[in-house]
Design brief:
27% of the residues lie in helices and 19% in strands. By secondary structure, the protein is an alpha+beta fold. It has a 4-stranded mixed β-sheet. A 3-stranded antiparallel β-sheet has the order 2-3-6, covered by helices on one side. It is globular and about 60 Å long.
């Protein structure tokens, strides 16, 4: 995914890792800086999204590597983005205290459930016009 984001316009992926004295990765964080408007407004229109993390060695409940990693990230990231959003793909409660101590707050996932058994017009009729647009229909997504 790093290569995909690196090749995508206005996206800059990064990799942050906490390693132990043996060089083994203990925690990993892979945020992607996404810019909406470039030029002089870049710093005001860039956000960072971590689509799958942070990841911590599965056998560990030790929060120190994650804490060190997030402290290092926070010291550099505010200069490059307005905020960082973490989109966990798994239960993130194990390290909730460490995340909170580093300035992150938990918000419930926003999920949309659509009954795809209906015909296309009924499905798109339940989507807000601003979200549905005509480009999705022209692209064959509807």
């Amino acid at each position: 995914m790093y290569e995909v984001f690196a090749a995508t316009r206005h996206h800059r992926p990064s990799v942050w890792a906490a390693v132990d004295t043996d060089g083994d990765v203990r925690a990993l964080f892979t945020p992607v800086s996404i810019t909406v408007v470039g030029g002089p407004l870049r710093s005001l229109t860039t956000r960072s999204v971590a689509f799958a993390g942070p990841l911590v060695r599965p056998t560990s409940t030790d929060a120190r590597p994650l804490d060190l990693l997030l402290r290092a990230y926070r010291s550099a990231a505010p200069r490059s983005s307005v905020f960082t959003e973490i989109r966990n793909v798994a239960d993130g409660t194990t390290f909730a205290d460490t995340l909170a101590a580093n300035g992150f707050r938990h918000e419930a996932h926003l999920n949309f459930l659509l009954d795809l058994q209906d015909d296309d017009d009924r499905i798109w009729g339940r989507v807000a016009p601003s979200a549905a647009g005509t480009s999705a229909r022209r692209a064959g997504w509807a």
